[in-house]
Amino acid sequence: MCNIVQYLIDHTMSNEAAGKSISRIERFEDLEAWQQARKLVNTVYNLSDVGAFARDFTLRDQRRRAAVSIMSNIAEGFESRTQSLSIERLGRAKASYGEVRSQLYLAYNRQYVSGEVFEQTLAQAESASRLIHGLIRYTNDL
After folding, report:
1. How confident is the model at residue 16 (pLDDT cuts 50, 70, 90)?
2. Fewer Cβ close by (within 10 Å): the C or N end of the chain?
3. Which domains are assigned to the chain?
4. How much is the pTM?
5. pLDDT of residue 51
6. Can you tell me the distance from the alpha carbon of 89 to that of 80, in angstroms, rounded to the nearest whole number?
């Protein structure tokens, strides 16, 4: 584990000092960013399991790989030995969020998802991507 862990410990301590009750983050599974990525992976799988989307093997499989990559890279970033490896893995996770969002536009254009589902999933991905951006920015400044 590298300096990202120190960031998370510091963030936890500052929230506790402010009177907020937050448990200490010791595993990547405790990261809100990883938890949000996990939810997005499940959303991606659920959306691509039905209808024409399920039969578009290229888009379905690429979208699933990109979503799984987010979760995996957050975990790898947390467990990395060095700051530079952590930033690289988190950067890959953020890039994969972009890939998932781009593919979501295609799924919407192909009418695989409704406008409502498109908007909800896009908001979910953007929100989670911002969490990664904050971790990268902080880790970069160490």
Report:
1. very low
2. C
3. 3-11+33-141 (1.20.1440.60)
4. 0.81
5. 96
6. 8
